Amino acid sequence: MAVTPSPLVEGAEQVRAFNRFYTRRIGVLHDRMLGSDFSLTELRVLYELASRGAARASDLRDDLGLNAGYLSRLVAALESKGLLQKSPNPQDARSHLLSLTDHGRQTLQPYDEASRQEAMAVLAPLAEPQRRELLAAMDRISTLLGERPADYLLRDPQAGDMGWVVHKQAQLYASEYGWNSEFEALLAEIVASYLREFDPASHRCWIAEQRGNIIGSVFVVRHDARTAQLRMLYVDAAARGLGIGRRLVDEAIGFARDAGYSRMVLWTNKALTDAVRLYEKAGFSLVEEEHHHSYGKDQISQVWARDL
């Protein structure tokens, strides 16, 4: 009987297939890069030093995944050609810093430009929307595989953002908690109500954006004359740990206070443990719990509140 491969095995094969495609596409299987006399690894070291200004050999070894002995020989060869130099590390007398010499920077410049031209050649055949989609996908891959840039901005919503908010939250709660389409319907109703009833004096939405990608959102709406309601707090799974959730909650509290509200409430679910901890740290207290069956699951809904 044939054995069905696991999702992890199937995913690994897809990663391998993509790697084969991409290496063919950019031509990195060639022993020499960009028609130069340098190997790909030598150029990677030169590029890294040009970008960083200076670096320890151990940092290059770890970040580039190189063998220590191989890197030592490579550095010695580049140093003998006058392309890089060593200097004392002011923060650690046991190590040296590597940096490019003037000759090294001049030597690298035409290869750097050639690399830029090759990248532009990849993008040139694509229409602008396709370019944005490709670059966003590259950013997404980098973020998911561990590169977590901390820079992001909070902005007002733009046309199309609300559909995205519903889509991403419904997708997240379905994948992480198994909630069904009832929850997506609730999200759509909340967003539709916000858009229909929006009053800048009492309503507000923030969108968190990073490198052109939306990674979070939160809403404040009018619950009654003295009470604001925080709704639909969301942080993308790949952006957790950057403090975005706390920042969104703090912005919501500050707006509600400035808008003249004296109290803020929110509804959540006991299963959302990260959100619950965040609300506690922000000064909210649990005021009500209810057992019920919603979104295809047994739930314990909670109401939290705090004075402003």
Question: Could you write a compact summary of the structure shown?
Answer:
The protein is of the alpha+beta class and 308 residues long. It is built from ten helices and ten strands. The strands form two sheets. It has a seven-stranded mixed sheet, with helices on both faces.
CATH fold description of the largest domain: Aminopeptidase
Estimate the strand proportion: 15-25%
Level-2 CATH architecture of the largest domain: 3-Layer(aba) Sandwich
Number of helices, counting only DSSP H or I runs of 4 residues or more:
10
Number of domains: 2
Radius of gyration based on Cα positions: 26 Å
CATH homologous group name of the largest domain: Gcn5-related N-acetyltransferase (GNAT)
Strand elements, count = 10
CATH class of the largest domain: Alpha Beta
Class by alpha and beta content: alpha+beta
In N-to-C order, the SSE pattern is HHEHHEEHHEHHEEEHEHEE
> Per the principal axes of the C-alpha atoms, what is the gross shape?
elongated
- Residue runs with pLDDT of under 50 for 5 or more positions: 28-32
Key terms for this structure?
10 strands, Aminopeptidase, three-stranded antiparallel sheet, Arc Repressor Mutant, subunit A, elongated, alpha+beta, seven-stranded mixed sheet, 2 domains, 308 residues
